[in-house]
Amino acid sequence: MWNTGRILTSLAFNVVLFSVEVLHSLPYSNFQSRKHHGYKEEPQFTEKYFSQTLDHFNFNNLGNGTFSQRYLISDKYWQKNFGPIFFYTGNEGDVWDFALNSGFITELAAQQGALVIFAEHRYYGKSLPFGEDSFNIPQIGLLTVEQALADYAVMITELKQELAASNCPVIVFGGSYGGMLSVYMRLKYPNIVSGALAASAPILSIAGLGDYRQFFRDVTADFESVASECKDAVRAAFHQLKELAERQDYRGIQSYLSLCQRPSSAQDVHQLNGLLRNAFTLMAMLDYPYSTHFMGNMPANPVKVACDIMLRSSDPLTNLKNTAGIVYNSTGALTCFDLYSLFRECADPTGCGLGSDSLAWDYQACTEINLCYESNNVTDMFPPMAFNSSDRELYCSKRWAVIPRSNWLKTQYWGDALSTASNIIFSNGNLDPWANGGVRKSLSSSLVAVNIPEGAHHLDLRGSNDADPVSVISARKTEADLISQWVKTERTRLKQPF
Length: 498
Prior knowledge:
Blueprint: E1 46-53, E2 66-74, E3 85-89, H1 95-99, H2 103-112, E4 115-119, H3 145-162, E5 170-175, H4 177-188, E6 195-199, H5 214-226, H6 228-246, H7 250-257, H8 266-285, E7 292-293, E8 297-298, H9 302-310, H10 316-328, H11 339-342, H12 356-365, H13 389-400, H14 408-412, E9 424-429, E10 447-452, H15 470-495
Parallel strand pairs: 3-4, 3-5, 5-6, 6-9, 9-10
Antiparallel strand pairs: 1-2, 2-4, 7-8
Helix pairs in contact: 5-6, 5-8, 6-10, 8-10, 9-10
């Protein structure tokens, strides 16, 4: 889907090269934009492990066993026994990647005197319940949204006792799937969580309530917004690739796109189309106004950079190759694309990434997480690549011996019937292809939609930067004010006698 569990290793290709600095967010006590110079700051967090229950819902299963769940904690700004607890509901990746790319939470902690905790999601990073066997059947069966939420509920409750913080209000934060988990925490455990900031959380489309054409249509719209000719150039390049494939000119495809191995089948061409489409997807998601190192190395404004390259010459396939190089070749070390090592097809058409985290996400996309998006070359600029519920069921039954439960999230976590909930911020950026799968209109005074016209994928969670658009600075101010209000209200409630 979207985050660092599926970070693409920044591989190289000898075309367009970019030098990207790692940005780390510096905490401060106001929300004016501040420049970061790219130097590495010492981590503010201490890495710890929590003894977590393997199966929260079966007392006889696995002998009530436990596993070590990783979390990061910082009390640098905490007003002990009084300040709130800001808890990040970790999603599909290494928890450090989220902590180092969510500087707003630390900035807000400095302003509001909060304790900050980033929890790692079970089966990701180093939080593997069964070690190397975690991705075997049946061990992987304990990877569910429900188990993850229970992990966080137990961790919050026990850490509050351990830290003598029983009267400290808890606000949960998350981006993308992590933002969905923050919403679900507020819905399922309102006794533990006082409010939630859900950034770029596609809770509607992932619950099966969206349009299957929406995602790649919105990726296309990002590039079209830079220049209408850009969309046409991308479509023309894919059309030329299709013509070569129809003639089975695999030598030509290899030469034009500098592939390490010559394609030899329609499946190889399908894989190539997926790899190329994935590059545009990542650039649209990560279209930040400054260079980043998150889910790979990206230059500032990668969509504009891509369009400049796509329109650079009269050779569409060369332009396509060089544009894909923004994502796959940022270090310039490789001389060719390896189709099957750079991209892994899975139950998530937007990309599962690589490594063991991709296995976990693939399983989740085969069970509860609905990601039946497809491109059609009519409403988008990509080759037709279908992925409907039947395709998903066939793949998942073969890969994981499971049948997806397409309606489960809608049943378990309310779908679009959210009006009776409270204290949730749904933030979305107009540049983010995930945005229209989420809540774009406020549902009440405490179910607030914050829309960021110049925002990409959870830009508001990132630390402040001089290049930030005014809209994200304003969004963070709105979020900070709402969270401060929720904390104050919860403190008042806790003081009241029963």
